[in-house]
Prior knowledge:
By secondary structure, chain A is an all-beta fold. Chain A has strands at about 5, 10-15, 20-25, 30-40, 45-50, 55-60, 65-75, 75-80, 90-95, 105, 110-114.
Amino acid sequence: GAVVSQHPSRVICKSGTSVKIECRSLDFQATTMFWYRQFPKKSLMLMATSNEGSKATYEQGVEKDKFLINHASLTLSTLTVTSAHPEDSSFYICSAREWGNTIYFGEGSWLTVV
Amino acid sequence: QKEVEQNSGPLSVPEGAIASLNCTYSDRGSQSFFWYRQYSGKSPELIMFIYSNGDKEDGRFTAQLNKASQYVSLLIRDSQPSDSATYLCAVGTNAGKSTFGDGTTLTVKP
């Protein structure tokens, strides 16, 4: 079964609203989780590193005020897309590293902003 | 040099043949390797992951990892038209970050 669970798998929201995506490590504690996004006709790109108990580290060009990341516990990181717009429609996926440095990916979330 | 390189293709194979997809990476400290399949307009889906040198088989899919040569490949046996998709290679480092290749488009012709 999945060791990293991502929810929701699909979400539709209205333009201007906010939407939250959760990433949970089920069998291990993850001090660090990662969020990725796929742009149209492109591969997936790292958006940010989520650090438990501290601020996330964002990659260059990613708006931290728009993509809020919270890593409140050792098993949960959330990505909130604030004031979503149609151009934010994308596939978002998270990953987590367990203590043995093995990486596990969530199942991904497909966001559609209408 | 890109961190993860894949031949963009398109790679075309006849139905029933073996499709071989290759991926090279630059970070020698990489520990985790993934293959995703993405149909046009759909979400990527994980089809294989491999963490140790050697081969890993799952049905018609075999992932091969050679850390010394820094490449990971995906073999698809008895290719079917339904295997036609873009295949993304992802490489994860010790630090936990993963880098995705740009993908290889595979076309399996009936």
